[in-house]
Amino acid sequence: MNIKSLLLGSAAALVAVTGARAADAVVVAEPEAVEYVRVCDTYGKGFFYIPGTETCLKIGGYLRYDAKAGDDPYDGGERGTWWKRSRATLRFDARSETELGTLRSFAETRFQYTNGVQEAVLPAAFIELGGFRIGLSDSQFSSWTDYTIGIISDDVISYGAFENNQVSYTYTGTNGFSATIGLEQGVSGFVIDDYMPHVVAGVKFEQGWGKISLVGGYDSVVEEFAGKLRLDAKFSDTVSAFIMGGYNSDGDKRNAFAQWYGDYAVWGGVTAKVSDKATVNAQAAYEEGGTFAGALNVAYELVPGFTITPEVNYTSFDDSRYSGGDAFQGILRFQRNF
Question: What contacts 334, CB < 8 A, 6 or more positions away?
Fold first, then answer.
């Protein structure tokens, strides 16, 4: 047998073996087309359609690092070292349209490490449909009149309760008028003890110049009332201010809504965007109990999405609850939003 015959015989044998194996080979199906994520612009930036559905979802949050030094502006206590907190927050906002209006579910989770202690917090988890809301969110007594302007320690003189189980309804008109009414369980120390909930209601009127808002709350446990009236004004595209007053029907004690001391309290603040990157915020507050609180900061956006905010706080105590005197605090915050 010569070399040519040997090569031809080997090739024939290889083809025969390959053909036998091919008969038993697994047939691979063609891959199915992938449905890529589609942008949903119905509810603003950041929403996308959940693949295979008509539900729009937005995922966002922030990472934050706070460092505080000096006195505690809330109680005047002296700190002997740094106060530090690292926080990671995730928000999930899912919306879709139905015959009854927009169906929305919102949840926010916080994971934080404060002075050596790990914490997990659920500040919000609610469902909305056509103006109705049920679940966990800040009390309407606080959120209806909005939060203060850009201050970190904005509640040294507290303007209301926050995380709260509730059922509420909000009407939004087409002319800038809106109204709300809700039933709330109350927060720590002010939780209802029978089947009668706390009641909160408010009205608001908003135009290009700003807005005016009014809210009232009835504490069903202590049977007392609290109210707030707020005026917001926009002086230009870069400067705005607010003033807000609060009333407590029994200033000798706080209730589920009036978290300040005394019959009344007042808050005021201004914000000014002084450059493309820097915004100055200032706030002052006073309660009849005798405490004055002031704060000033500069929020500087170093790059888009990353803001550094140094803040100084001053509190003057003239109240039997404290030993009196002054408290000074400095804060440095780093926050990356996404």
Answer: 64, 65, 306, 307, 308
Q: Give the predicted TM-score (pTM) of the model.
A: 0.84
Q: What is the mean pLDDT of residues 299-311?
A: 98
DSSP string, 206-229: EETTEEEEEEEEEETTTTEEEEEE
Per-residue pLDDT tens over the stretch 323-332: 668 999 999 9
Closest CA to 132 of 166, 165, 163: 166
Give Cα separations from 144 to 100, 158, 170, 272, 279 (angstroms): 24, 15, 10, 23, 24
293 contacts 313 by C-beta, under 8 angstroms: yes
- Which residues share a beta bridge with 102? 97
Q: Report helix, strand or coil for 319.
A: coil
Backbone angles phi, psi at 3, to 5 degrees: -65, -40
**Is the CB of residue 303 less than 8 Å from the CB of residue 294?**
no
Q: Locate all alpha helices (DSSP H) within the chain, ordered by sequence.
A: 3-23, 140-143
CB 311 within 8 A of CB 297: yes
DSSP secondary structure letters along 51-76: TTSS-EEEEEEEEEEEEEEEB-TTT-
Residue 22 has pLDDT above 60, yes or no: no
Task: Classify residue 3 by its DSSP letter.
Answer: H
Distance between terminal CA atoms of the chain?
Answer: 77
Give how far Cα 251 sits from Cα of 14, 224, 244, 318, 327, Å. 98, 10, 17, 16, 24
Closest CA to 150 of 316, 328, 304, 301: 301
- Pick from 305, 303, 297: nearest CA to 333: 297
C-beta pairs of 154-157 under 8 Å, 24+ apart in sequence: 154/283, 154/295, 156/73, 156/74, 156/285, 156/291, 156/293, 156/295, 156/313, 156/315, 157/260, 157/265, 157/267, 157/285, 157/286, 157/287, 157/291, 157/293
Contact (Cβ atoms closer than 8 angstroms) between residue 156 and residue 312? no
| Of the candidates 304, 189, 195, 200, the residue with the CA atom closest to the CA atom of residue 255 | 189
From 293, 327, 297, select the one nearest 309 (Cα to Cα).
297
